[in-house]
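lol so apparently i was supposed to do this last week
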Amino acid sequence: MATLSVIVLAAGKGKRMVSERPKVLHCVGGRPLLTHVLDTARSLGPNECVVVFGHGGETVRAACENAESAAWVVQAEQLGTGHAVAQALAVMAPVDTTLVLYGDVPLIRAETLQPLIASAGQDRVALLTAELPDPTGYGRIVRDTLGQVVRVVEERDADAEQRRIREVNTGILAAPLDRLRLWVNALGNHNVQREYYLTDVVEMAVGEGLTVEAFCASDPDEVQGVNDRRQQAQLERYFQRRQAMALLERGVTLLDPDRLDVRGTLTTGRDVVIDVDVVIEGDVRLGNGVRIGPFCSLRDVVLEDGAEVLSHCCLEGAHIGRDVQIGPFARLRPGARLADGAKVGNFVEIKQASVGPQSKVNHLTYIGDTEIGAGVNVGAGTITCNYDGANKHKTIIEDRAFIGSNVALVAPVRIGEGATIGAGSTINRDVPAGHLSLTRAPQKNHRDWQRPVKQGKKSSPA
Ligand code: UD1
Ligand code: CA
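anyway here it is w/ uridine-diphosphate-N-acetylglucosamine bound
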């Protein structure tokens, strides 16, 4: 089998992004453009992958979680795509075929690249092209009368007739490495931009009797680059649409495929239902029959089978057991663990705490740094006072305890098994199992009492 290496060009600044951040670090689907490309490159199984970087320097490498899968070569001055490829080739080991990808063309798929790789050889260069309704800004594919590709002409160097050509160069090409090395070393910069154009190797290849085979991308969106925020936004929509379609194919119900954003990985069981305007980030796993209500955001969470999240919930770093019900309007923060059958209702915040099986925390409550056992009821307005201004302390609520409404549990404190806390209590000492504890001030009813009257106002007739 022919051996392969991949070059990814990522040295450009991306002026049109109007940003301090290097272009290839802007995101689509929650991940930098360049990480998408590196994943795709790796999936092709090359002997070697080399990223040419420049603008942004080491920050580019540091921001790519998959940076290790490539070697990194600096192009100190951006003298053109041909010059960039030459920098990579200077450090690369010999292989049969080299594929050139772009750090700012993030959504290219391996399936689209494989035919190019298969086609390239000693007598053949493969070029990925696209037919665009508006080819403005792109290099055009010039063919002879027999329809053979003869060269690529950059828009700025093209004449009026060439500018009318709608088949454009995506920049992506596969070529025999040894020949590519000779060609890029022979490039000149006699063009409007005074740059070393990689595209000029097409004419060189044809001149040496090689065939340049153009593969026209079936979906122009896939080969679209990100040059400005508008294109970034368009690609984001395209990417989200592609993911939504894949979810539908996997049997997930999406009430509106255009109103789900997945910025990470979403794993789903059978018969999952996701309502509108849901944002998924990081690693999210939804078991069988899980239902997510409208307007929820989920980041790095696991929901076991049958769990249901009602509308307007914010879940992060949480583990949710089977048949749990959450929301509406609940916030689960990192370290929240809800056991099977637990219930968390509206305006409840849970942080670094476990809620045992069948326990209920239904209304207006803060639970932090707490362990709640099984079958516990936490009344409305309960607050675990976990922070003394300097340190965090733990609250433990044992099985079947009943916490009345509006209770402050001042940690560290332990509520024993089956204990009952009267409404309105402030509890700062441990409560033994089975006891009733309340700190309520005795109620006084005053008969001879009159409401104050606003000064200067005539008292109303009796
Ligand atoms: C290039 C192609 C053009 C094609 C278009 C597709 C050339 C000469 N032209 O034009 O035919 O239609 O892409 O989008 O190749 N880069 C470097 N170092 C450099 C210059 C560029 O790493 O010195 C990188 C950029 O970061 C970018 C990519 O190469 O990722 C393309 O560079 P860019 O300047 O955007 O090329 P275009 O002028 O768009
Ligand atoms: Ca350019």
